[in-house]
Amino acid sequence: MSVDAAGVAFTVGSGKMKLYVCKDDIIRVQYTSTATLPKKDSLSISNKWTTPTPFCATESGGVVTITTARIKAKVTISSGLVSYTDLAGKALVAESSKTTTATTVEGTSTFKIATGFTSTADEGLFGLGQHQAGNMNLKGKSQRIYNDNMWINVPVLVSSKGYGLFWDNYSTSNYSSTGTATNYTSDAGEGVDYYFFYGPTVDQVVAAYRTATGGTPLFPKWAYGLFHSKDKYEKQTELLAVKDGYRNNKIPIDCIVQDWDYWNPAGQGSHIMDPTRYPDPKAILDQFHAANIHGMISIWPVFQDKNNPNFNELNAAGFLLDKGGSSGYQFFDSYDPEAQKMFWRQQNDQLVSKYGWDGIWADNTEPQDYPAGTINRATANTALGKMALVVNAFPLGHSKALYEGWRSTGQKGKRIYVLTRSAFAGQQRYGTTMWSGDIDCNFATYAKQIPAGLNFMAAGIPYWTTDIGGYWGHPGRVDWTTAASNEMFTRWFQFGTFSPIFRIHGGGSRELYGDQWTAATKANLLKFDNLRYRLMPYIYSLAWKVTNEGYTIMRPLVFDYQNDSSLFDIKDQFLFGPALMVNPVTAAGVTSRSVTLPAGTWYDFWTGATKAGGAKVTMDAPTSSIPLLVKAGSILPMGPMIQYADESTDPLEIRIYKGADGSFTLYDDAGDSYDYETGKYATIQLSWSDAEAKLTVGARKGSYTGMLASRTFNVVLVGADHGTGIDVTATADKTIKYDGTETAVTLK
Question: Which of 8, 84, 211, 261 is most deeply packed, by most CB within 10 A?
Fold first, then answer.
């Protein structure tokens, strides 16, 4: 054993192992069966751990105990196996095995990597990314770790016992859990390399993961409003008609999307908008912006060899991956930093900044072999060797290209927004949202998206969305005019209202003003669209909490109730921030549903009636609504009815749900630019004392250009049919004329 400032090193048989004390709640374990630990530049870990963390290492009875300010890691010297406890000695998880076995993968000498862990049978396990198996609790389940369309793998596992594991490996892997055993094996790697995170809350575990792999930038405020997209608009006039359809019908919206194929007849990757169909692309963006709407455009990492200068430039520099066939298409090498820069420069100069697009839709970033024959994800040669060795990390390099490119050479005064179909650990630091891929248009598929998204949240990446209504809704597949399709879309839209990003996409016309919807459907859709926008002050404040604290907006129940094992397998309920519990309807013809109420008192958002927690209840769920509950002690800020996210949210309605003490930090800034990174923002602390029935609005901290110096806060103490539903409450219980100084009001 040897000790240095970074950690403790061991000789284990003929191999080597080191435990790095990265922070007092983060331990890295590196092990090899060879004589020397490999030097590794992690693709996922961004923290350089430049400041040593104090720890103590003591030996007794053949066991070395490494103690930090928060945890203990115990190493059995003879076997090299590590176990983890809290400071009181309570067991968290323990290694049962770790091995590296020499193997050859695609002609490369490497190792098959295996780690085994033992933990209690009563824990819940969550995370590993977005999977379509319909599972919530992953205890007792298995999962292949290989990115593909509709499957996003992030090898981060969190436990209800308050710890997490991240396997820093990029090859195809397999996770399995049976009883008290958890195993993770990878096809290729230099050695065992994993990170242990300690909470004890799940939020703290996720925050520790982001400490290691990078924080989450704040999106522009408009990105928290409604996106409208279709596969696919074919010309400029269609895009502008969508703008008019939403604005003329007073339906709130923030972004309209141009999907693929706008380049025809030029080749894919040409970054040309066909001038016969899009005669003036800049005019599209100018007219969008005049209507307070933003534009996002689809780009792909694949290039068609069709007299394409971009293809030729990348190819001449050696920045294209090997073709797996002869389709005439190739993907750029997202593992190569110089290829990343060229990829960004081409699309930015020729498309994104040239016309003023506000967001980028990065499609096919697994990458899927489309068009067929474009890539073989095992044999392709990358800057890091055969792709089989690093296959799951392709989307990470792709997102890095976009984020770092935008920040260095993109449009000044705009925050980057990227929607991408795939991800890997660490991708949250690149300003991306993931979506759940090309999914079917039916209730069964929709139902699976909820646990898929919740486990993606548990894996530590906080922004995710779906194609509301499903992707495969093209004419001939789905008739959107039928009662069944109207119902399915409505139910999906209700769920989408409480997704971190709110987005319509897929085949067939789904514009909210369209004649495919009945009058009742239009009213139901508008109701939830308006609710999303009324909640904008709440949502944007939570977005800041994501950036500032490592928070998660869309929350599996285990995040807030990690000691209640009866909640671990619930896959159709979740929390949206600290106040709201969302209970979507996921089957046809349903007008009521069972809701499990966690401990505490819960308010019906629609009626103000209260229900005691710790029980199952049946609640009404007409097509026009879903059960939406608010936790007692919540402070829920709601803005006025607005048409776009940056519209003024003054006056602000502050709903108080008595029954427990509560607090909420209201955040605001200019809505775009990266000025918030230098402190140009404002926060206001709201605190509710239940015993005193007093709301304290704290002194405003900070400021930014354009900030309202004074504001009106209409305070509402929620009760039966008072302060309920989406409408602005007609009569407030108290009105505060707020000038930035601390103010308190009593509500009796």
Answer: 84
Collapsing DSSP to helix, strand or coil, 310 comes out as: helix
CA 55 from chain centre, in angstroms, equals 34
C-alpha to C-alpha distances, 156 to 405, 426, 606, nearest whole angstrom:
27, 10, 37
Instruction: Report the domain count for the chain.
Output: 1
- Output b/e per residue, 644-680; b: 16+ Cβ within 10 A: bbbbebebbbbbbbbbeebebbbbbbbbbbeebeeeb
- Residue 4 neighbours by CB under 8 Å, 6+ apart: none
**Is 366 one of the catalytic residues?**
yes
Catalytic residue among 438, 440, 487, 511: 438
Distances in whole angstroms, Cα of residue 391 to Cα of each of 100, 101, 114: 19, 20, 18
What whole-number distance in Å separates Cα of residue 345 and Cα of residue 409? Answer: 8
Encode 483-501: b = buried (16+ Cβ within 10 Å), e = exposed: eebbbbbbbbbbbbbbbbb
Q: Are 729 and 717 in contact (CB under 8 A)?
A: no
- State the catalytic residue, choosing from 95, 333, 336, 366: 366
Is 94 within a domain? yes
The confidence score (pLDDT) of residue 84 equals: 98
Beta bridge partners of 166: 156, 195
- For tokens 């209409």, the residue is 714
> In sequence order, what are the beta bridge partners of 24?
none
If phi > 0 it is left, if psi is from -120 to 50 it is alpha, else beta; for residue 213 that is alpha
Q: What are phi and psi of 565, to 5 degrees?
A: -65, -20
Antiparallel, parallel or unpaired: β 359-362 and 294-299: parallel
Residues in the chain predicted with pLDDT less than 70, given as ranges, are 323-327
Pairing assessment for the beta strands 15-23 and 7-12 based on DSSP bridges = antiparallel
Predicted local confidence at residue 323, as pLDDT: 65
Measure the CA–CA gap between 378 and 324, rounded to whole angstroms: 9
Enter the DSSP assignment of 440: -
What's the domain range around 78? Answer: 2-119+163-198
Token pair in block for residue 617: 């209840």
99 located within any domain: yes
Kind of pairing between the strands at 418-420 and 359-362: parallel
CA atoms within 13 A on the CB side of 398: 28
Question: Would you call 188 helix, strand, or coil by DSSP?
Answer: strand
Task: Determine, yes or no, domain membership for 80.
Answer: yes
CB 468 within 8 A of CB 450: no
- In this predicted structure, what is the pLDDT of residue 307? 86
What pLDDT, in 10s, does the model give residues 657-705? 999 999 999 999 999 999 999 999 999 999 999 999 999 999 999 999 9
Whether residue 662 contacts residue 635, with contact meaning beta carbons closer than 8 Å, is answered with yes
DSSP 251-280: ----EEEE-S-TTTTSPTTS----TTT-S-
Do the beta carbons of residue 736 and residue 697 sit within 8 Å?
Answer: yes
Q: What is the pLDDT of residue 324?
A: 52
Q: For the range 474-477, what are the long-range contacts, defined as Cβ-Cβ under 8 Å and sequence gap of 24 or more?
A: 474/231, 474/507, 474/508, 475/507, 475/508, 477/441, 477/507, 477/508
Q: What is the CA radius of gyration of the chain?
A: 26
**Options 190, 363, 529, 646, the catalytic residue:** 363
Rounded Cα gap, residues 709 and 703, in angstroms: 9
What's the sign of the alpha-carbon dihedral 550, 216, 452, 27?
negative
Q: Per the domain annotation, does 157 fall within a domain? A: no
Output the pLDDT for position 322: 80
Query: If you average pLDDT over every residue of the chain, what do you get?
Result: 97
Q: What is the phi-psi region of residue 162: left when phi exceeds 0, alpha when psi lies from -120 to 50, beta otherwise?
A: left
- CA dihedral sign, ordered 337, 26, 460, 552: negative
What one-character-per-residue DSSP string does 335-374 give?
Answer: T-HHHHHHHHHHHIIIIIHHHT--EEEE---S----STTS
Is 123 an active-site residue? no
- What's the CATH number where 26 sits? 2.60.40.1760
Among 350, 308, 552, which Cα is nearest to 453's?
Answer: 552
